[in-house]
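Cast an eye over this sequence plus tokens and explain the fold to me:
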Amino acid sequence: MKYVVTGATGHLGTQIVTALAKLVVPTTMTLGVHTPAKAAAFAQQGMTVLPLDYRQPATVTAVLDAADVVIYVPSKSHDSFSRVTEFENVLAAAEQAHIGHLIVMGFIADQTNNPFDLSAFYGYVPRRLAASGLSYTILRNALYADPLVPYLPELIDRHNVIYPMGDASLSFISLQDSAAAFAKVAVTPALWRQPSYTLTQERSYTMPALAAVLSQVSGQSIGYAPVTLRKFAELYNQGNEGHMLASMYAAGARGLLATVTDDYQTIMGHPAQSLPDFLTAQLASQG
């Protein structure tokens, strides 16, 4: 078997590679990365590391050549057009390489009425795959819980969660749990019968409930005082990401990021780690 992971040095990709290496022989793994030097540790384990630029179809075809299973992790581009373009290059390469099965990272913000900037891409993915003739599985992630850890000191200083969410709730999954599910699906053909899974913890959180969890794990008092969408975009516009982030919470305020399923348990045989347990473990590991 030949397993391919694209975007293998990103936040999710790195964890997928680590999880997959526990289930298959590392020499059966090929990693497509933008900067091969960043994957030197994986190469030392016997994995094949190849340069990949989603904008250059020849590099995508070379990485996917004769793969039995491909795990596609999209780039971090901030607009749907760029991501759809790269996805089309991946599909063309997958068809040319006659791959066995394609696993695609999705996101719960894919509804037709979702205002998130990247919703068009995530909505395009399942429709395009359905028309492709490829064998595929989409793994739709909830919001990653991991960014809450470095964000916590700022929330403590503010004494409040400020997400512009109103009374709506958010659903989470950790990168590690998501990666474990990707790896398990990759090596379990029986799971390929279902075209899509949604990876979440067992519950979602309103903002007061999230503030209570953050207060509990930090030992500090954190409440909920939302800012406006415009203010949120201004506060977090590093890398020109402000509008994209604000649009995501606009979707959340409509209840479109609150999905909870038992799909993770179906795949892994146990529930995803809860948000309080995840945060407690992460904070403990920091000292």
Observations:
- The CA atoms of residues 215 and 221 lie 5 Å apart.
- The radius of gyration is 19 Å.
- The chain has a mean pLDDT of 96.
